[in-house]
Amino acid sequence: MSWAERHEIDNGRIPKDVSQYNYGYDIESKDPLTGRKRYIEVKGAMRRPDKREVTINEWRAAMKLGDDYYIYYVLGIGGDEGELRIIKNPAKKITPDEKVFNVNLSQDSVDKSILLKKKDSLNE
């Protein structure tokens, strides 16, 4: 996240790490001249893959915040050089490959549990 934060500082904005709050983005960055905020989700990769996972929470935030939501894709993590790809309003220009999201279906979230047994034949 440091490269994304540095980019914001270099461009006169004040970034704040909010990743621990699960807002659907990692950084709130404020322009001190206009007061306008950028809501930035940071994705990273050591190499240069074009595909990355986005959580349903991140996608909902992107749809809600529109032009104020950005994905900063940092490529080359761990190296001396990298690339920062900035995508403004990803919900407007990116189509998810799949409409599938991983969810936790633990016993804590179950309303009703029914034990099933395999029947010996279809007629029973």
Could you write a compact summary of the structure shown?
This protein is an alpha+beta fold and 124 residues long. The protein contains three helices and five strands, in the order αβββαββα.
What does this structure look like?
It is a single chain. The chain has 124 residues and is α+β, with helices and mostly antiparallel strands. The protein has one domain: 3-Layer(aba) Sandwich (Trna Endonuclease, Chain: A, domain 1). 19% of the residues lie in helices and 24% in strands. It has helices spanning 2-10, 56-65, 90-93; strands at residues 14-17, 27-30, 37-45, 69-75, 83-88. Strands 1-2-3-4-5 form a five-stranded mixed sheet, with helices on both faces. A hairpin with a 7-residue loop joins strand 4 and strand 5 (83-88). The chain is globular. It starts with a helix and ends in a 31-residue tail after the last helix.
CATH fold label? Trna Endonuclease, Chain: A, domain 1
Helices and strands, in order, run as HEEEHEEH
How many E strands? 5
**Backbone shape:** globular
The value of Rg in angstroms is 20 Å
> Major sheet: order of its strands?
1-2-3-4-5
The CATH architecture can be named as 3-Layer(aba) Sandwich
* Estimated share of beta-strand residues: 15-25%
Major beta sheet summary: 5 strands, mixed
Mean pLDDT: 79
